[in-house]
Amino acid sequence: MTxxxxxxxxxxxxxxxxxxxxxxxxxxxxxxxxxxxRVKILDVMWGDAVQDPHNPDHDEYxxxxxxxxxxxxxxxxxxxxxxxxxxxxxxxxxxxQGLLDFPTTFRGRWVYLCWRRGERNITAWHEVDGxxxxxxxxxxxxxxxxxxxxxxxxxxxxxxxx
Length: 162
Fold this sequence. Notes:
The protein has four helices and four strands, in the order αααββββα. The protein has 162 residues and is α+β, with helices and mostly antiparallel strands. It folds into two domains: 16-86; 94-159, no CATH class. The chain has a four-stranded antiparallel sheet. The radius of gyration is 21 Å and the shape is elongated.
């Protein structure tokens, strides 16, 4: 399978969309937190008895759990459709830290254009095994070359960890 090698311009064009995606994810995570807190309260009040269909708070308990499940499904769908489905990598801690990696090619290998929520443009890149701590600045020369000089079909896909 050939991976998409993003150019700086392609990645930058997606940043406004990714900001909106992170807003959607934040909203779903807030739903999970709120509903989880409500489930915890009912658990403290009733213990296992809340699971009894005759319990006066059972329907509320079931509703909160359904809302949590729905929010997690929405998070999975958003990540699949809006991030992974576009060929963008969600690194470890990406959800919490607002991080995304856009795969690109550079000098015959895969590397990542690294973006953090709130940044207006891609300003950094890192090696596949470098992570956020290994970020390096994208110079004008690199911006002209990344994702353009190498044929992604000729670059070893095994380096990418999707």
